[in-house]
UniProtKB/TrEMBL annotation, chain A:
Belongs to the binding-protein-dependent transport system permease family. It comes from Thalassovita aquimarina. Its main location: membrane. It is found in: Cell membrane. It comes from the Bacteria. InterPro entries: BPD_transp_1_N, MetI-like, MetI-like_sf. It is a multi-pass membrane protein. Keywords: Cell membrane, Membrane, Transmembrane, Transmembrane helix, Transport. CDD domains: TM_PBP2. This is ABC transporter permease. The keyword Disulfide bond does not apply. The chain crosses the membrane at residues 12-30, 99-122, 134-155, 167-188, 227-253, 273-296. PROSITE patterns: ABC_TM1. It holds the Pfam family BPD_transp_1.
Automatic annotation (TrEMBL), chain B:
It is found in: Cell inner membrane. It is a peripheral membrane protein. GO terms for molecular function: ATP binding. The keyword Ligase does not apply. Belongs to the ABC transporter superfamily. Residues 8-257, 290-528 form the ABC transporter domain. Keywords: ATP-binding, Cell membrane, Membrane, Nucleotide-binding, Transport. This is ABC transporter ATP-binding protein.
Amino acid sequence: MPAYLARRLMESILILLGITLVTFILLYLVPADPARQIAGRSATAETVQNIRDQLGLNDPFFMQYWRYLTALFQGDMGRSYLQRAEVSELVASRLPASLLLMVAAIVTELIFGLTIGIVAALRRNRPADHGLMIFSFVSISAPQFVIGILLLYVFAVKLGWFPIGGYGSFAHVVLPAVTLGFLGAGWYSRMMRSSMIDVLGQDFVRTAQAKGLGKARIILRHVIPNAILPIIAMIGIDIGLFMSGIVVVESVFGWPGIGQLAWQAIQRVDIPVIMGVTMISATAIVLGNLLADLVAPMIDPRIKTK
Amino acid sequence: MTDPVLSVRDLSVQVATPAGAKTVLDGLSFDLMPGETLCLAGESGSGKSMTALAIMGLLPKPMCRIAGGSVRLGETELVGLSDAGYRQIRTARVAMIFQEPMTSLNPLMTVQQQLTETLLEHGVCSRAQAPGRALQLLRDVQLTEPERRLKQYPHELSGGMRQRVMIAIALACDPEVLIADEPTTALDVTVQAEILDLIRNLQRDHGTAVLLITHDMGVVAETADRVVILRHGQEVESAPVRDLFAAPQSAYAQELLAAVPRLGSAPARPEKPQGDTVLDVDELSVRFDVKGGLLNRVKARVHAVEDVSFSIRAGETLALVGESGCGKSTIGKALLGLVPWDGSVSVMGRQIRGLGPAGLKPVRRDIQMVFQDPGASLDARMTVGDQVAEPLLIHGIASGSELKDRAEHLFRRVGLSADMMTRYPHEFSGGQRQRINIARALSLSPKVIVADESVSALDVSVQAQVLDLLQELQDEDGLAFLFISHDMAVIEQVADRVMVMRLGQVVEEGPRDAVLRDPRHRYTRRLLSAVPVPDPTRIRPERIETESLGSPIWPVGQGPAKLALQEIAQGHRVAS
């Protein structure tokens, strides 16, 4: 197990290194000129050139990349071009809000997704199943900004149950978390349904019936634990999907997280911030997958961490 | 006159199909007496498993339903019983064990959890007593190291051990009736013998009535008191076991018994002129890496095949026999280049060591394979005609109308009609599918065919037909076969020479009669003595004590001790 963990961590670092390179290349190729953004529209070509020299933007690609990488290894993610702050400070101040939103969304989508999937599988090919699967289809297809605005209109504007936006109390979390978890609930319900149906047909479920066990015990003890196994790996991958959703949802609800930070930075070509947010997201995805792989053997004794 | 424990009257089961309800069990009646073993025997589709599920109330819903009749357990009528009523019956009064021990246990629960759950459900003992009871049950089914087994998960146990656990669960509440649905079909022959012994002993000690469902007439002869033979959901014949084997009354029972291969009864193999060597294998080894550690380096190796050498001549059949995991199938795969291997293999005098995909292509014209599962080895979405013709296309041998003619010829060759070519695999029976697989293997006119358990999945009557077909092909074309099988009786029918393998190495080889009728190695003897004999009058010989096989996994740099073969007679060689 320690050897496995060490190997996986090493792999993770390599993956992250690869991501820095790819992101750096992409940003290098972007036609927008950050120096022009900093200097403003009315600045002279000379001023822009000066800023470029100052930021080292005229250096060859690999020199810039090397500078970024060496700084990164010392914990320095650079300084924002436009906000007078270190990227690490900006990210650190925004991260808790995003993590809170993400955890709330994961809990939401798992509760809804798994419950719907289980009920649909147990009521297979009956009206309840059809109804739930139509719901999941809608939730997968609906764009998040539409869902967000719809929820805002109904529950915040019309009914006034929840605040329209902002951050602070439990009530603030509900609508963004539901919006973010809506898509995942659809996915998980479909996966859980097919996984349940698969397990319900297994020989050991027939054995459990032959033992004379009650239906509730068969479902809770024999079917659900086996059906949930393939879902665990998905949760790790899911964190990646969240990162794209978070940008949209945080803008709609005015949620002060890294999604908003990323959105602002992209609009203004604030390259150090974009790099910082990308690295944080990538780390979250890599860690999420690692976590999923570490949790799986605890639930499934057949998986050995070699 | 004692009353039967289980009494089935006019039981009918229907299955819903798109074409309407189909009766799969039609008016079956039988009585099961206390302490008796009744065998329901028949080929696939005879309705024998349906009977078991109907008694247990486990027919798959909503596709199947009991259309009529009665099942009485003592005073209780089971047909129409509520779910709650059935829960009181299952395992408490009627218990069942299934064919597939590998999948019949929950992979996420320990053996102890799966046992105690049953005990507690039926209130056999208190929660505090349950672990002790579970341990006692494992002792009853003679599982080795029972204390350790309790804490283990199903995947840590072998098939035979898992079936013992299943039996322990089934006997947890001391039921009146034990239904065993093909309990040993998925197991090796030596393990089968042990499990059947165990069931017999437990039955004797507990007085349980056993309803044994099997397709294997050898198992019937060794275990049954009475037999009911089923065909297409109807009873064909019902008789005490000795009467049935001595003088079967119905034509079907006569046919069925005649088709059963009997070890020791196969006719002598015809004398053949010595053909040319078509396949020459020298010191073939196959090892699979087991990786682990910080840098994922090779930690150990599975020594699947160790320095195996043999050769086959044209028109000859060499049989490879051994239990699961002995490496016999791996040899077949290595010959076709499906797994990496070491050593030397020449096909028709051409060395294939080190050949890439392009170099292997012409070799594959000479060596082809027929696999075990006739359904899974065909593409479900391609017509069978196209599948048989495909190798000819790939090798650029024929096209257009010539291709069609050739494929038609192949179909007729294996006893199918050419107008079947436009159909899909699901429209054929298992035996027909295996004929299609054989036609595909024959399409390139190979010199050697590797037949890996090619008749194991087929019913005996179909099996006999396919074996006849293979023999016919050999007689006409001088095909050489490498026939891989675990079934000694089948091997006796087809083989000229036999090689017995154990843990990747050959322990005995020689002419068929020498190896099968005068076995010298302990392991060969054990294998042979475990084969159930379809003769109920025979007194079972004392079984040769089982020994643990050992493991084929060795740390890097180590390996099993090489067995040296000594020649004790012309061509008969035995490991010391």
